[in-house]
Amino acid sequence: MDTSGMNLTYTLSAKTKKILQVLIAVGLILTIWGILKHSQTDIQKQRIWSNIWVNIMFFFGISLLATFFYAVQYAAEAAWAVAYKRIMESVMKFLPVGAILVFVYCLLGVLGVHHTWKWLDSTAVMADKALQNKSAFLNPGMFLGMTAVFLLVYVAYQRWTCKVSLEIDNAGDGVQMWKTNRTRAAGFLVFFGFTSVVGSWFWFMSIDAHWFSTLFGWYVFAGQWIGAIITFNLIGLHLKSKGQGEFLNDSHQHDMGKWMFAVSFLWTYLWFSQFMLIWYANLPEEVSYYQARWDDYRCMLWTMFFVNFALPMIMLMSRDAKRNRTFIFIVGCIIFFSHWVDTYLLVMPGTLGAEGHIGLMEIGMFLASTGGFAWFTLSQLAKAPLLVKNHPYLQETLHFHI
């Protein structure tokens, strides 16, 4: 494929900016309206903080799993994904911003500004034998220390690999640099495999500190992964709609559609496996997690599950559906929001109990965060050529057909 006549520079158009500005403005208005509707009780203040955490972790998770998926493509020497490299990198570049937000939120929790994690309160620990037994792991020093180490390594790898990617564009022969990137990607995947699970214990599972599940880390991982895959799909569709993604053909979209289909089923498998085993065993220290969601969030829980399971199965099973831009866009947007609801259900029952619900504030924060994330990502996409140069598999990806 000759790329000389293609428009390989993305421009964030005035129309797209206006749409994102409206999205952010509407989100902020709804958020403020939702906050002002209620008196500022302790539970209302915690509701605000909990919603902030939901949105931080949802979009941080997308950027982190984008980094993971990017490293997978290097380690596997995948040719088809080279066409999506710049898209992946633009999503990955939110990782430093997300990491700062995660650390600041955790630090504020340690300082007692909010009460997302009850075990950070020494008084609560002294009155709870179970929390005392877990204090060797669940303590402020371990929490902040491991969070800082994890985030620093994630960001260091992301910044390094994106920097080398641009250097390959300007190199006469990028093969050796590509090999170095491949080696470091493999090392990052080993680190990520351990820390992503431990991080999910700290950031999500310990909100319900009496509860535990050996499947939980992989379940959180799968939910964040599908969010990243959908983001790649939607950005690719955006480029095609602007006439700036000519190098992305139907086969590329088909493969990314297969990933969306497959990871949705992985998430469904992990969700049901965790739920079925815990519910069937009916042990008090395990079933309390689902009991809270069953009693107070049942409609949301089952709607979220069946949307994330049934929609991909019904609408993305066929080959034609995976190549249909309209199908991919509609299904992607619905599942994207549904996995935000999944993140909401990871946090709210443990922080608010029966007081949690999706209202104006929740919808507003989601819209404002989505608009801000999209603006940041598309702005980063405009800073580099849309197609890489001097990549060993460049010609293979340009002629990719299945």
Layout: helices, strands, pairs:
Elements: H1 14-36, H2 42-75, H3 85-92, H4 95-110, H5 122-126, H6 129-133, H7 140-170, H8 175-203, H9 216-241, H10 250-281, H11 284-296, H12 298-315, H13 319-322, H14 325-352, H15 360-381, H16 394-398
Report on the structure:
The chain contains 16 helices and no strands. Helix 2 crosses helix 9 (216-241) and helix 7 (140-170) runs antiparallel to helix 8 (175-203). It is an all-alpha fold and 402 residues long. The two termini are 16 Å apart. It has helices spanning 14-36, 42-75, 85-92, 95-110, 122-126, 129-133, 140-170, 175-203, 216-241, 250-281, 284-296, 298-315, 319-322, 325-352, 360-381, 394-398. The protein is globular, with a radius of gyration of 22 Å. 74% of the residues lie in helices and 0% in strands. The chain has one domain (19-398).
* Regions with little confidence, pLDDT below 50 for 5+ residues: none
Number of helices: 16
Head-to-tail CA distance between termini:
16 Å
- Mind describing the biggest β-sheet? none
Extended strand count: 0
Q: Looking at the structure, what is the overall shape?
A: globular
Radius of gyration: 22 Å
What is the residue-averaged pLDDT?
92
Return the domain count.
Answer: 1
Strand-and-helix sequence, N→C? HHHHHHHHHHHHHHHH
